[in-house]
Design brief:
Elements: H1 8-16, H2 34-40, H3 46-54, H4 59-62, E1 68-73, H5 86-104, E2 107-112, H6 118-128, E3 134-137, H7 144-155, E4 160-162, H8 163-183, E5 192-195, H9 199-211, E6 218-222, E7 225-226, H10 236-239, H11 250-254, E8 259-262, H12 271-275, E9 282-285, H13 295-301, E10 306-309, H14 324-333, H15 341-356, H16 361-366, H17 388-402, H18 413-423, H19 427-440, E11 443-447, H20 453-464, E12 468-473, H21 476-486, E13 494-496, H22 502-516, H23 523-529, H24 533-542, E14 548-551, H25 557-568, E15 578-585, E16 588-593, H26 603-619, E17 625-629, H27 640-655, E18 660-665, H28 667-671, H29 673-679, E19 692-694, H30 698-710, E20 715-722, E21 727-730, H31 737-755
Parallel strand pairs: 1-2, 1-3, 3-4, 5-6, 5-8, 8-9, 9-10, 11-12, 11-14, 12-13, 14-21, 16-19, 17-18, 17-19
Antiparallel strand pairs: 6-7, 15-16, 15-20
Helix pairs in contact: 5-14, 6-7, 8-9, 8-15, 14-17, 15-17, 17-18, 19-31, 20-31, 22-23, 24-25, 26-27
Length: 757
């Protein structure tokens, strides 16, 4: 299921609710008391002010400057919208700030300047520059952008980059190096043809020359055809690439080319034009949303082609997010005074080399690939590859040091890599990877409460994201009325009116009877039960007419759980299921169990719960590291809960040596690796960061996750049923739309991985 085109109403609502915009400022220090406020502001703030006045470099020690980037635009060249002004550019700039944060943990203040005049723009940026550790220029028209960046780099001593120029250049350069290696071509002899002569194309061409493309072999076309020296009024940037050549159109120039780079508009390259290119042609058709030639047409024209586009639904997506967050990350971390050519080339080579490394399974899983391998359809990494931050940022930092522009050189690279790995709590990536995984092969999810607005809204989101195929149970007329009332787009959702489907009810009643007849159920009782949507939905799941089930929005948890246990049942040899919550925290996803079912599990039930949770966690491609929690540490107390967890731990460690598990242990030690190693160096959890937390009883688990959720310390997904034969899950009563969507996405991934596809 491909992602549905984004509707205007949806994107406007996204930017408006629950509060306008996409970013906010959050304090990083305690502010709970008058003393805290006195230290944060007056009179305590005077002390760091005096230190900075005496040594200006201390601003990096006592303020957020070292992790703060300004995203600055004047709105003169916004996406494909053109000169729409500074106010209209703000949503784009906020969005860029979001990308900086989620991919590299860089804070961004977006500044939209009413300064169409380049010199006024430059003066304004220079005036605010002391606030920032770096500056990302964005959406500034050519040729002004060249002049602005050049002046600012000359006159300021912090990293500055115009991403519209250099971002695409860096990513395509990495792709070019790899494509040339695969095709066996020498960069010094290839013919390269550009179509488009804006900021991105100019920057790409310059970087390609730095890599070894010969000037005489590089041809640049614009809307008038080949750029020639005979033209009047060429900009200085275009003059660099002007050829002493007769006027020619793109079709003429592209003949015999080894490489085509399109940064222009869709549909201007034909199959016949691609056929005239040299053997093993390389085509980067980067116009968005429609490339210069479609991937399908290019593949049909040449079997020997290597192609990249800007689209996520084609192999080899050229996405600037592969570069700019990590380039700034490396530059900021060594307090570079600029982003120079050496640093950009280091990023190019780091991205190119990363592509050749074995791809982590979570990346394969996210993109629905069995084994991504360096080759024609994989010449640059995927945007969600978690290795990018620990590959590109260090390469950029080293290049800054080697080229003499680093004011704070790194000495301990292992420690630096650990810091980079820990910067992103991986909570955001966890959801994004789940969505990517689910969208590769969308599963049929039956919602037993399909006549509820929140379910219908969640279904719309799932369809729009291409992550699931909702099946909605409920009165058809009522569902259609709600859809119309709220203007939902659910034309592709399946609606099943249980009471109107007599044939379906009878078929499922007969099958239900075969399941429950030796449990005292009569056929008449089965016919009565099957009229209830939760029983009907569970029979759909049992019979393979759905892949996963979601229920429980409007009923008490035990009521929704009962038909699942009666119809789906627990896995062979397992007496009880358990409930697991996934909590998305700054330190990554954490998995809590049992949170919903077992009041006081026995040792045997604890052991089975651990094994089932561990299997479930592995299905999300995360290695489980299990802490069995108690109020006691390794025998410090002899209470029944402590003894129970200690005994379970002993058996698990003996019988499952490959599983990282230990206990009984207090939560603070389980959460703090340094404290654990200092106090209990013998623990099997030493050297690991626990991510699975098993509670001695239901009260402890349920109270803990609800407190964390209520305090805003974590976002909860669940409860996910553990130990059932199929992916069936019960929402908390009154769950929000977001909670329903997250639960359904996790259920879809669970269902898919259970089937091994």
């Amino acid at each position: 299921m491909s992602q549905r085109p984004i509707r205007k109403a949806d994107t406007l609502k996204y930017h408006q609710q629950p509060k306008p915009g996409k970013i906010e400022v959050i304090p990083t220090k305690p502010s709970n008391s008058q003393r805290d406020l006195s230290i944060a502001y007056s009179p305590g703030v005077a002390e760091p002010c005096k230190e900075i006045a005496a040594n200006p470099e201390d601003v990096y020690k006592y303020t957020a400057k070292g992790n703060l980037v300004a995203g600055i635009s004047n709105g003169t060249a916004v996406l494909g919208l053109g000169d729409i002004g500074p106010e209209a550019s703000k949503p784009v700039m906020e969005g860029k700030g979001v990308l900086f944060k989620i991919f590299a943990d860089i804070d961004v203040f977006d500044l939209e300047l009413d300064a169409a005049d380049p010199d006024k723009f430059i003066d304004t940026v220079k005036a605010v520059a002391p606030t920032f550790g770096g500056i990302n220029l964005e959406d500034i028209k050519a040729p002004d952008c060249f002049y602005i960046e050049k002046r600012l780099k000359e006159e300021l001593n912090i990293p500055i980059m115009h991403d519209d120029q250099h971002g695409t250049a860096i990513i395509t350069a990495a792709a070019l190096l790899n494509a040339l290696e695969i095709s066996g071509k020498d960069i010094a002899t290839i013919k390269v043809v550009f179509n488009g002569a804006g900021a991105s194309a100019i920057s790409c061409a310059k970087l390609y020359l730095s890599l070894g493309v010969q000037p005489e072999n590089l041809y640049m076309c614009d809307s008038k055809g080949l750029i020639t020296s005979s033209r009047d009024s060429l900009t200085p940037e275009k003059e660099i690439f002007a050829k002493d050549h007769a006027p020619a159109d793109l079709a003429t120039v592209i003949a015999g080319a080894d490489v085509f780079v399109g940064l222009s508009k869709g549909g201007i390259v034909s199959k016949n034009m691609v056929k005239t290119m040299a053997a093993n042609p390389i085509v980067f058709a980067l116009a968005n949303p429609d490339p210069e030639i479609s991937y399908k047409d290019a593949m049909a024209a040449r079997e020997d082609i290597i192609m990249a586009t800007g689209r996520s639904d084609n192999p080899n997506q050229v996405n600037n997010v592969l570069g700019f967050p990590f380039i700034f990350r490396g530059a900021l971390d060594v307090r570079a005074t600029t982003i120079n050519e050496e640093m950009k080339l280091a990023a190019v080579r780091a991205i190119a080399e990363l592509t050749k490394e074995p791809v982590p399974e979570l990346v394969n899983l996210a993109y629905g690939e069995s084994n991504l391998t360096f080759g024609p359809t994989y010449i640059i990494p995927k945007p969600f590859d978690p290795r990018l931050i620990t590959t590109v940022a260090p390469a950029v930092a080293k290049a800054a040091m080697d080229s003499g522009v680093a004011k704070a050189p790194i000495t301990d690279w292992e420690a630096y890599n650990r810091v980079l790995s820990d910067r992103l709590g991986r909570d955001d990536k966890f959801i994004r990877l789940l969505n990517e995984n689910a969208s590769q092969k969308p599963q049929r999810i039956v919602f037993t409460e399909g006549d509820q607005y929140r379910i219908l809204k969640a279904a719309e989101i799932l369809i729009n994201g291409g992550t699931a195929k909702p099946v909605l149970l409920g009165p058809k007329a009522k569902i259609e009325r709600i859809i119309e009332e709220y203007q939902l787009e659910l034309s592709s959702a399946e609606i099943v009116d249980v009471m109107a489907d007599a044939e379906g009810r009878e078929a499922y009643a007969q099958k239900l009877y075969s399941v429950r007849k030796r449990r005292g159920w009569t056929l008449a009782e089965c016919r009565s039960k099957i009229k209830q949507r939760d029983y009907f939905g569970n029979m759909m799941l049992r019979e393979g007419d759905a892949d996963a089930l979601i229920s429980g929005l409007t009923v008490k948890y035990p009521t929704a759980l009962r038909p699942i246990l009666r119809i789906i049942g627990t896995e062979p040899g397992l007496r009880k299921a358990a409930g697991m919550y996934t909590l998305l925290t700054k330190r990554g996803p954490m998995f809590f169990a049992d949170t919903t079912i077992n009041l006081d599990p026995t040792v045997e039930e604890i052991i089975q719960m651990v094994l089932n949770v561990a299997d479930t966690v592995r299905r999300t491609n995360i290695e489980p590291k299990v802490a069995l929690l108690s109020y006691s540490n390794f025998g410090s107390s002899n209470g029944p809960d402590a003894r129970k967890m200690a005994q379970a731990s002993k058996i698990l460690r003996e019988e499952h040596p490959d599983l990282i598990v230990d206990g009984e242990i207090q939560a603070n030690f389980a959460l703090n690796p340094d404290l654990l190693e200092e106090s209990f160096p013998f623990s099997d959890l030493v050297g690991h960061r626990a991510n699975v937390f098993i509670f001695p009883n239901l009260a402890a688990g349920n109270i803990t996750y609800k407190m964390l959720q209520s305090f805003g310390a974590a976002e909860a997904i669940g409860p996910m049923l553990i130990g059932t034969q199929k992916s069936a899950h019960v929402l908390q009563l009154g769950a929000s739309v977001r909670e329903i969507v997250n639960m359904a996405t996790l259920a879809a991934v669970d269902a898919r991985t259970r089937k091994g596809n």
